[in-house]
Amino acid sequence: MTKEAVLARYPPAPEALLALLHDLQGTNPGQYLLPEDLELAARHVGLPLSRVRDAVTFYSMFSLRPRGRHIVRLCVSPHCHVAGAWSALDELRRALGVDVGETTPDGLFTLEFTSCLGACGVAPAMMVDDEVVGNLTPEKVRAAIARYREGR
Ligand code: FES
């Protein structure tokens, strides 16, 4: 979808900002926002560029740097923290060979932290793209990564 087509989907109102940014991000290979995207969004919804930049840097779903084809987001909010998110992180580091905030050399995965995914009942949890993977054990982490590596 083109950036113009994305803009046409949203009313010129501040309430549309987050959804608009999300879709603009999707127009770029590497799932990130270019400076021109922030300017487009600010003009479209009628907010100062500084407010748009604040939103982009506050929410972990947005990135200003290119990311991998699959985004792995490990929840580190209290339920997941207590339930073993750090063990899952160790396994993710091993399985991917990168640390948080990094992208695998093949461009396939980016590893990030996130706040609560709304899946506390299956903590510890992570999200791979739009899929929640819960009750994480080292085996489940390895299986999920292997599945996405093989094309899901
Ligand atoms: S605290 Fe991790 S999903 Fe809610």
How do the strands and helices of this protein lay out in sequence?
Blueprint (H helix, E strand, L loop, with lengths): L2 H6 L8 H10 L8 H11 L3 H10 L11 E6 L2 H6 L1 H12 L12 E6 L11 E3 L2 E3 L4 H12 L3
Parallel strand pairs: 1-2
Antiparallel strand pairs: 1-3, 3-4
Helix pairs in contact: 2-3, 3-4, 6-7
The structure holds FE2/S2 (inorganic) cluster (FES).
In this entry the ligands are: FE2/S2 (inorganic) cluster
Q: In this structure, how is the largest beta sheet organized?
A: 4 strands, mixed
The low-confidence runs, each spanning 5 or more residues with pLDDT under 50, are none
Rg, Å, rounded: 17 Å
CATH level 1 class label of the largest domain: Alpha Beta
- Shape, principal axes of CA atoms: elongated
Strand order of the largest sheet: 2-1-3-4
Characteristics of this structure?
binds FE2/S2 (inorganic) cluster, elongated, 4 strands, 152 residues, Glutaredoxin, 12% strand, alpha+beta, four-stranded mixed beta sheet
